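I hope you will forgive my troubling you with a question about protein structure. Could you please explain, in whatever detail you think fit, how the structure tokens follow from the sequence? Thank you for your consideration; the sequence and its tokens are set out here.
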Amino acid sequence: MSRRFRIAAIPALLAAAGMLGACAIEVPETPEPPEQTETLPALDGPRLERVLADLGDLIAAADEEQDADLLADRVQDPALSIRAAEYALAAATADSDEPYTPQPLTAQTQVEIVAVTDTWPRTVMVVTEIPDESNVPLLVTLEQETPRSQYQMHSWVRLLPGVQMPETAVPSVGSAPVPLDAEGYLYTPPDALDAYARLLGDRDDEGTIEDTFAEDPFRTLVTEQLATFDFDEAGEFDHNTTAAEEDILTLATADGGYIAVGAMNTRYTFTKTVDGAELSLGGQIAALDEEDGEVSEDGESLNARYELMVAVYVPVESDDAQAMVIGAERVLSGVSHDSPDE
């Protein structure tokens, strides 16, 4: 008799337990502006309201049709590719016992963080109201590439429960963008995202990264999920997370640190290695897989790919400084198979 091992549905981590329950998100009041500023903010209040209203209408129309092409003029990657993946996952699971619903988005804001700069690209970050059918606010990031181009949505993340947003300057003063090679911080923006990706992928080889990051609910959920993938009697499991080196947006915080928002990719690989065993994946993976999650041949691998958006607060460099992940979003974006001969 063959031995059959079925991996239960892999949850969308940020949807698990409603993002760990409806914990309060502390959104601080912005401090009073100084008397003078040399450079004006890149976007005033009324114009920002119009930008967000137009974006909200566009997202609502695209959600109604479940069509990411409708977003292409005002939404860029990583947000565009992740929304497209959400629509595809919703369609694939529509008739299942656990249909997937794309993350509710809103353009209604609590706090605006506007770049103060006389160059382009220009960045805006907004902390939203809590969207309908959700229980946490979003941090939405916008970017304007050139003086004549429209602001586009670059990313969104759900703010993590129990994490306090760092204070930033009022919109009338603006917050400075931080260069990707800036010195004097715990990490440069690319290095901060790479370090967190290494933690998610269990690649802290020298054990030096973990102490530089505060614990956060998203990493805890990832760690708990990975601990469930123990099926030595059927096969092997491997995983890796990498951070994109480009399209990282930053704005300074009032305490001298900064917020960086960027993209990551995670790959889970399930390989059948035991003769006579049967290995299958369920849930969202099976829904997206042409083989219904079955790994039939010895040596065959099933690969599940996830796309992530992550927001990290990085402080100035000091002996006890710790970076902090303040928000994240993740979606299953594809499933593929590698045969034993590949």
